[in-house]
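Practice set, problem 2.
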Amino acid sequence: MIRMLTGIVGARRVRAYLLTLVSLAVVQGLAFALVVPVLRALFAGEASRAWPWLAALALAAAVCAVLRYRQAVMGFSVGLDLSRTLYHRLGDHLSALPLGWFEADRIGRIGRLVVQGVRVVMGVPAHLLQPLVTAYVTPATVVLVSFAFDWRLGAALAATGVLLALTYRLTARLSEKVDHLVDATSAEAGGRVVEYAQAQAVLRGFGRSGSSYAELERALRDQHRAARRSITGVVPALGLNALSVHTAYVVLLAFGTFLALGGSLDPAALLALLALATRFTEPLVLAAELGGALRVGRNNMARFAEILSVPVLPEPATPSGAAAEGALAIEFDRVTFGYGGAPVLQDVSLRIPPRTLTALVGPSGSGKTTVTRLIARFFDTDTGTVRVDGHDVRDLTTEELMSRLSLVFQDVYLFDDTIEENIRLGRPGATREEVRHAAALARVDEIVERLPDGWRTRVGESGAALSGGERQRVSIARAILKDAPIVLLDEATAALDPENEAAVGDALRALTADRTLLVIAHRLSTVQAADQILVLDGGRVAESGDHGTLLSLEGRYADFWRERRRARGWRLLSS
């Protein structure tokens, strides 16, 4: 755990804090041990001999007060820096991870970590390290000083201390096992609750709301069972710790009484033994009570470390310095890629010329979306090279690559803000007039006119206040505003009605005058107007060419075209 803290906060601060904790614990132990010579002097009727020891005791108490104040300030300071550093490092790291890493169970775990995990980890230096260090260092100091006064007292305290430490370690392991189970079930339950809230329309449409949603019910039951196990596992452990501490105190009392009755231990030493035993066992009781919380904190730190250890997509140390001007070409050179299983793309080579509209067509699962994701470097290829503007995307920094691309994907996410601010995300420095112009090109201004507060209307979480087609138009306006040399659209017009699709299509085609446009589309109008059509099938480029050329081949594209024309001719007739 100390190694984890050092890696996050810094070795110098952690060492300084630990030095303060150890110093405080040692001075506390010395103060407790100084009770022995004071009592001996008082029982011997030599009050004058007690004054030096009382002065030393007072000095130790004053030093304890100063160190305790310094420890409290440093603990809270380290805890705050720890939480801030974790948030920053986690955010920076997540933004650099491959998108394939973000699976459903990991989303729930991340949510639990950033909400509860950071708070628990912050409490480790602020509240838990001090009693932990005190629990070991203070009794050890008391034992060492006791040997100087009476070796039998030191031996008795040392023996009971070893037994208490072993008991603490045993019960702490039990608490740690339960914590892993509670964390896993809580993350699953949290993910299911979010899923249940976001998918209400689908669940209600299929009668799966309430208790009929078995997945949520099962996750909540598992969490309940884990919570019960934590109670049945942790409470006995705490009881065992308390029992062992009180047993040790009774054993020390019996041992001291036996020596006193035998005449080998004077009454003053017996009283000192009882005082030391009380102060000896007190920090151990507190550490036992906080032991479970300490293990939970360490486990959460380990979970943070696990996420931070996931390799990110490597980037060049320095920018290439090549500025993107005008339209850019895209090239795939013998690219093979898969999502951990069978390859989705196999030995794909293609070229998308600048200032052209290229359409990707093919059956579901043929790799169309994967092509756009590799261009945007959401993943690295298994073999082969993807080039943008003649540069391997792996040789461009994220900022350089993203400055060349505008992305409009099938799954649109809007932030809980106004439509204007969601569009402005494409170019934060854009003026209001530029935002409104991009919105007009994507017909977003028509949406705004229907909203109660116009441009100031908030769209809700994920854009819940808008329809799917409206969200897509906002996303397209965002891409138009960015004004990047390359525009990637994945099923971008699929959710639009024919009138708005035509309007948005005209706006997007206007960009190809000096832009490179790659579109995944099933609409006949988009496919027919493309300068180049790439037909993917089985992870390979089966055919390429313009509309007329591919129709004359009577191959896969011709089959695709005939199927779409038949589907376009369907009509609902009244009986």
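Problem 2, part (b): a different protein.
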Amino acid sequence: MIRNHPLQPLSWVVGHAADRTAAPRRFVPATVPGAVQADIARAEGYPDWNRADNYRMLAWLEDRYFTYRAEFESPALADDERLWFVSKGIDYRYEVRLNGLTLTEGEGMFAPVEADLTPHLAPHNRLEVVVYPVPKRHAEPTDRTQASHVVKPAVGYGWDWHPRLVPLGIWDDTGLQRRRRAHLTDVCVRYTLDDDLGGADILVESEGAASEGFVGRWELFDPEGRCVARAEGAVGEPLATRLEHPRLWWTHDHGDPVLYTSRYRLVGPDGSETERAEECVGFRRVRLVMNEGAWSEPKGFPKTRSAAPAQIELNGRRIFAKGSNWVCPELFPGLVTAQRYEELVTTAVRTNFNILRSWGGGIVNKDSFFDCCDAMGILVWQEFPLACNCYPDAPEYLAVLEREACAIVRRLRRHPSLAIWCGGNELFNSWSGMTDQSLPLRLLNAVCYRLSPEIPFNATSPLNGMAHGHYLFYWEGRDVFQLMNESRFTAYTEFGIPGIAPREALERIIPQEELFPPQPGTAWEEHHAFGAWDGDPATWLAQPTLERYFRPAETLDELISQSSLLQGEGYKAIFEEARRQKPYCAMALNWCFDEPWPAAANNSLVVYPSIAKPALEEVRLACRPLCASARFGHFDWEEGDLFSCDLWILNDLPHGVGPFVVRATLRGDASPVQMLRWESPAAEAGCNIAGPAARVRLPAWDTDRFHVELSVEGHPEMDAHYTLAYRRKAYRHDRTAPMNVTE
């Protein structure tokens, strides 16, 4: 489908009924793109589904049939024109009818839907789209396993950060489209870069219907608008040409995300343009290669599968991938706008991220998400909509999966931001039970190889050598510093530290009388502060952990401050330690970046709709391409301990840096304690500098925390700051006591 061909919008209404053959008794105005739940909630005057447990009011809609209806007059069509119904996405199973006649039906929300209306037009027409109920493999349990037989994102069936609210409806651009006998349906620019990246062999592929005398004329324009390549030929005929010295597309931290403009024009016998297709093209080569040292594993016999390649090589340069896991920014994907994508991707770039993992439990995002990533220079790890389930080898499932996967690949392969195809999330785990031999994964690999062989493919995340977890600051007797210092992985593709949402977000979702103190059975639990994950009633509020390090909070603001401190320091510890572990480690992606619904507490960095948690700033500092860093043995310390930290310079820049002079200072409740002055050597491009250990005996302070400050002479942009927990000597032998008790 030509993405920039205009669609004539229609005025829609929607109604619902108990079965497919029954007509709705009432129709209400519908927003397209949108979701049926949003339309019904608006018409019935339901309260905000983001607040308290109001989302439960929409649960009854799961099992209804919905009919979208639009009426229109037949337009005057030229002899060589036809009128089509076109939708970029209907969720999930559907029928399209015109004047009572079913024109097409199917299932899947990512393959475009098209129907030629012309033979069935009347002077006045009624167009209907019937959307079936939420697909459920079984009635119980009511969880994500109900989606294990469909190519529908499982997250809506309920997750530890997402309420059970399963979207349905027309969720992407939809309308009428006039097409001439000679027309285009797709244009794709493929290319192969020379080994030395000095030139590109270009192949322009077009699809559509041709007529005698019509030709396709293609031109490529550089960022300044100069035409740098052109070709001409019949529609459907591949056009081959070459571009010398292309300017390469880079992530924003390694160069400029240079974009060219492709323009394909369909020209008639008289030389007039009848149709055109434009899109951006970025020239880059992306590979997944073995991490340094990975081939030496396993060390003993039998010599067999090693760690999977997790090192991204962009344009011949190995880069450290710093980023986050991206989830749909709305409960109902049809409500996501281009402006919302732009706002969130801009925040990701400002956080010094260069990659986003588009998680397999959620949707495959709209084109405008990828447009933002293309323009801003951020890579996308794209998963297919499979997650945490055992998806079947059944032919009927595979047929839908192949149709959906082909549509996804054909739509996204043109984006330079696309870096990795992935079958889905956590499919090789005990709770999923899939393997390399599972037919859905073999099929997805085949589709990607056939349609997009230039992009690497992973069957799932994690693979051998990669890590998912942990997701708490304190886990089974060790804090995040200890856990990370003992870890060794090629990539940390999920890890989390929970944090409470800012007060302004909490006040929107929790009734005033329930705000403080947080209690199970209230809106705090509805919004995932209690009992949300792993059967632990304390997650994601993590109150026992907070009280391990601090006194019980006396106010909501104090509780938020304590939680924000742990989330910020925890995330900073993981990102910086992952960077210290390169070149064996090549990637660090936290869980997660955004959220579609305001959680009272979870691992996100940005609270719905776009409220930054304080931890976001700490992550931004931890991901600076060049910064000073300190490595700690653990988070909590006591009076009289011999405090120690290792000093580092972390460098992800594509050029050498240094030397530097670094000063380490300790601050408690009194005068600063000077620890160390380090004259570092210079570092080569992309290489860190390991420094000495700074040590000092901790004095008696009247505080529950202290600070470590690293200052780099002449380079304040590299300075670093850490806050650690402190306990007075009287409590040396009682690690469970509140740490701010004073004598």
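Answer key, part (b): The mean pLDDT is 95. DSSP finds eleven helices and 43 strands in the chain.
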